[in-house]
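Reading a protein record of the kind used here takes only a little practice. The integers have meaning only within a learned vocabulary of local backbone shapes. With that in mind, consider the following protein and its fold in token form:
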Amino acid sequence: MSWMGMQMSGTLHGELLTKVINAPTNLFFDVTPYGKLLGNFTTGMQKADTTAITEGHWVIWHFLNGSVKVAFGLYFSPYMIFPILLNYYCFRSV
């Protein structure tokens, strides 16, 4: 998960940096101080990294949690397959 976050962060930072470097000089660099530009990059990248990792862990946790519950339900009562399939169908059709 950390490797995926690092790859995503590197790609995002590279694209942002390329867009800023290729911006017209008279429209961007003359009116934006260097400190503000650096602060925006570091703050934005930190928020993106933290959010991506946190949300990724949340998704994996809930997927595994649901999978274990379904597996236990099917193990102890094989007839639970019918309500599980009905719920799956209802959620997929929404």
About this structure: Residues 15 and 35 are 20 Å apart (CA to CA).
